[in-house]
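ARCHIVE CARD
Drawer: 12
Card no.: 0347
Subject: one protein chain, sequence and derived structure
Cross-reference: see card 0346
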Amino acid sequence: MYRGSIGYTPRVARGWESKSVEDQINERKAEAEASGKKALDRDEIEKRSRRESILLSRTRTLAALESTRDERYRALLQRTLEHLDLELAKLE
């Protein structure tokens, strides 16, 4: 009886795929340790997130400052920039 390639899947030992995934995870951990990278702790992640958020706000504020003509709004944006710069300085 001839079995063509259509519908035929060779059987694989049960658990083979999970072993492969486990090996990949272990390889990644070993590579990270060898390269000197350390896992970021929660505080560092929050600090980076806060910094990125401030930088994004600063970029939007600068864009608004360049496009506005109202002096009162410009003054508000200038104060906002000063505040954001202070917050960035605190993080560093």
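Annotation on reverse: Residues 39-92 form one domain. The chain is about 70% helix and 0% strand.
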